[in-house]
Amino acid sequence: MNVRLAWSAAVAAVCLSGCAARTLPTVELRFYETPAESKPKERIREDVIMNATLIGDAGLRYMKPTELLKAAETGSNRGDPQKLMRAARSLVPGNGVVLLGTVRSASSGGGNANLAIYSLALACERTDLDQSGDLRGCKGYVLRATRTWPAEVYALQEATVSLISEGGTAHGRLRAKSEPGAFKAEVEGEFAASIVELGSGGVASDSGK
């Protein structure tokens, strides 16, 4: 091996070692059953890498779980999971910032039959996404959908999001809980996100299909 090839191999080895040592940001999703007279029972727990996007000058078309479920109706007292996912990512022009996150998971059993798709959507107050800081006034929902109906949709309260802007991308930390009810969801962890403006073409991809 000549000197140039040996040097290239050494550089590649160092790069691979560093990439392997770096921990990818993950988000923990927890879903509970909360009976009125007993302790909450954990139903689902997932540690996932969330594909996220921060969209400026935008708002969510649907803000309540009931609105999402109605948008997913098929006319036969049932809903369509794909229509629900599209509705969960529907945006309108606005003065705020929207955080969208999507995750596919087959850890509950593997294979397409057990595939679950999680979608997170938060509408927050206007802020400069080129600056690091906290997003304020964040409200929205998290949902879990499989290939069969029904799906689960939870309105999120007490959502806090902190961002470190890195020029076109951001590293963030998220914590949110759903509103009280017979079932609840909690979301907590770190994520990496691309930053775009509504209408720039950066949110055209539909990773939840």
How is the secondary structure organized here?
Elements: H1 3-21, E1 27-33, E2 41-48, E3 51-60, H2 65-71, H3 81-88, E4 91-105, E5 116-124, E6 133-135, E7 139-145, E8 152-165, E9 169-178, E10 183-197
Parallel strand pairs: 3-10
Antiparallel strand pairs: 1-2, 1-10, 3-4, 4-5, 5-7, 6-8, 7-8, 8-9, 9-10
Could you name the key traits of this structure?
209 residues; alpha+beta; seven-stranded mixed β-barrel; 16% helix; disordered N terminus; disordered C terminus
Description:
The protein is of the alpha+beta class and 209 residues long. It contains 3 helices and 10 strands. The protein has helices at 3-21, 65-71, 81-88, and strands at residues 27-33, 41-48, 51-60, 91-105, 116-124, 133-135, 139-145, 152-165, 169-178, 183-197. A 7-stranded mixed barrel has the order 3-4-5-7-8-9-10.
Give, in order, the helices and strands: HEEEHHEEEEEEE
Q: Radius of gyration, rounded?
A: 19 Å
How many strands?
A: 10
- Main pleated-sheet profile: 7 strands, mixed, barrel
Strand content: over 45%
Tally the helices: 3
Q: In terms of per-residue confidence, which ranges show pLDDT below 50 for 5 or more consecutive residues? A: 1-22, 201-209
Shape: globular
Ends apart, CA distance between termini: 48 Å
Class per helix and strand makeup: alpha+beta
Q: Overall pLDDT, averaged?
A: 84
Strand order of the largest sheet: 3-4-5-7-8-9-10
Into which percent range does the helicity of residues fall? Answer: 10-25%
